[in-house]
Amino acid sequence: MRAIALPRTQIRGGTDDGTDGPGRSSADSMLSGSGLAPSPVQTSAVRMATIQTGLLVVELALEPWGAAQAGLLEQLPAEEQSRILRYRRDADRYRSLAAALLPRLLISHQRAQPLAQIHIERGPTGKPFYPADPQLHFNLSHSGQFVALALGTSPVGVDVEQVRPTRDWDAIAKRFFTVEEQQWLARFDNAERRHRFVALWSRKESLLKATGEGIAGGLSSFCAIAEDHAEIEIDHRGQRWFLRSYPALTGYGLALCSGAPGLPQPLQAQVRAAQFLDDINPAIATLVAMPRVAADAKAP
After folding, report:
1. pLDDT score for 221
2. Residue 43 gets which letter from DSSP?
3. pTM for this one?
4. Sheet of 232-236, strands arranged across
5. 285-to-10, 31, 70, 275, 289 alpha-carbon distances in Å
6. How many CB atoms are closer than 10 A to CB 78?
7. Weakest-pLDDT range from 20-34, 159-173, 194-208, 235-249
8. Cβ neighbours for 109, distance < 8 A, ≥ 6 positions apart
9. Which residues form the 4'-phosphopantetheinyl transferase domain (predicted)?
10. DSSP for 212-255?
11. How many other C-beta atoms can be found within 10 angstroms of the C-beta atom of residue 39?
């Protein structure tokens, strides 16, 4: 099955008359002009119950770091700002900024709270969580031009991996994959093996991110073979997990894991992402663009 090449659609926002309105700070004005200002909606617990498991993928518009991005950076806690600014390359700053902002934008919108009041913490293994709402689970991944956000009412994990043709896939498989997975990969020719490898790796990493273990939890501790893009069920350390790969991003592997079954179908995930984006409108100035599914795209 071929991956679906998705066109880039810039997300734009702004007021009808271009004015900031009275009594608003420059930061508030920028957020409003970028479509970021939260609006009153139901509480996150109610809204999340209708989502169950969702997937949002955004494509970075890699433009020079400017005032808009610097202004958005100021909405984050000081430690997050310092972490992002440690990157020297604009592309790395973009990825890190987008990953830090996306869950905060979601929560800000749902709870009608200013972005600066959304406090996200990290667990012992570094997995982010929102302590004010334990029913909200989310996870982030970024690679190349893309940032992915998984969210749900059960623990979730997501992984996006850029395919790098120069890597020795067989050597990496021998080091990190089970014998069964290595034998399965050996059935395919070089080009297909590379594609299958990245899809398999992203499934395995998404599960270890959902558990909070990370790669240290052992990529070879379970088998995640899947044909095409079917949802699979895995028992890992006595708990059931559900995984699915997505073919939507050309040149990337993308996988979602959840503690609850019924993950979005491959094209459904992108359609839902588009609707979800339209709902919360998390435009990050010119930073983020949303991949859209072509009208004639067929499900695998």
Report:
1. 92
2. -
3. 0.73
4. 156-162, 252-258, 239-246, 232-236
5. 10, 8, 11, 19, 10
6. 8
7. 20-34
8. 38, 39, 41, 280, 281, 282
9. 155-255
10. T--GGG-GGGS----STT--EEEEETTEEEEEEEE--STTEEEE
11. 10
Tokens at 156, concatenated:
């979730």
Q: For residue 260, what is the DSSP state?
A: S
Q: Which CATH class is domain 8-291?
A: alpha beta
Dig out the tokens for 195 from the structure. Answer: 């594609």
* Angle formed at CA 154 by CA 150 and CA 155, multiple of 5 degrees: 60
Q: Which helix (H) or strand (E) element contains residue 189?
A: none
Q: 252 near 144, Cβ under 8 Å?
A: yes
Which amino acid, one-letter code, is at 248?
A: A
Q: Which residues of 158-179 are buried (b: 16+ CB within 10 A; e: fewer)?
A: bbbbebeeeeebeeebeebbbe
Would you say 144 and 130 are in contact if contact means Cβ atoms under 8 Å apart? Answer: no
Say how far apart CA 122 and CA 273 lie, in whole Å: 25
**What's the CA gap between 113 and 41, in Å, rounded?**
11
**Nearest alpha-carbon partner for 231 in 270, 263, 184:** 263
* pLDDT tier for residue 46 given thresholds of 50, 70 and 90: very low
The domain spans of the chain are 8-291
Q: What is the DSSP string of 112-163?
A: T--GGG---EE-TTS-EE-TT-TT-EEEEEEETTEEEEEEESS-EEEEEEE-
